[in-house]
Dolichol-phosphate mannosyltransferase subunit 1 (Syrrhaptes paradoxus), 160 residues
Amino acid sequence: GTAYIHGMKHATGNFIVIMDADLSHHVSLLYFLKQKEGNFDIVSGTRYKGNGGVYGWDLKRKLISRGANFLTQVLLRPGASDLTGSFRLYRKEVLQKLMEKCVSKGYVFQMEMIVRARQLGYTIGEVPISFVDRVYGESKLGGNEIVSFLKGLLTLFATT
C-alpha cells in the first residue's frame, strides 16, 4: 500500500498500472484495450479465468492462492475471479478514492481494493494472464501473511 501512495504522488496520467516489481508480470497492452472496450474503472489480470494460469509454483502455493480466492468468493461475492493478484490498471481518481477507504496491509490489501471498488459501484474488467513465478527474490508469503489475510477477510465479511 505504501508503494501505491508514493507512486500516485508522482503519476501524471489518467491511469495507473500496478504490478510486482520483481518482473513476474508480463506487461501487456491488453489492459488498455480491455479498459477502452468496456470503459472500466479497473482492469485486473486474472490467473483463474479464460486461458489464464500460473507457472512455476509448487502445489502448496497453488492451494494457498486458490483457497484464498475461494474463501473470498464464498464470503464476499466480489464479482471478480482473482482477488489476490497484483497486476491491475486503475483510473487514477478511482485508485485515489480506494486508497482512502482501504485499511489493510499485505496480501489482503489486493482483495480489499476489489471489494471496496464493488462496494462503491466501480466497474471491473478482467484480462486472463499467465503468471510465471519470479526469477529473482522470494515471496513474502508466510504464516503471518496467511493469518493476516484471514483476519482481513473476516473483517471485510463483518463490515461490508
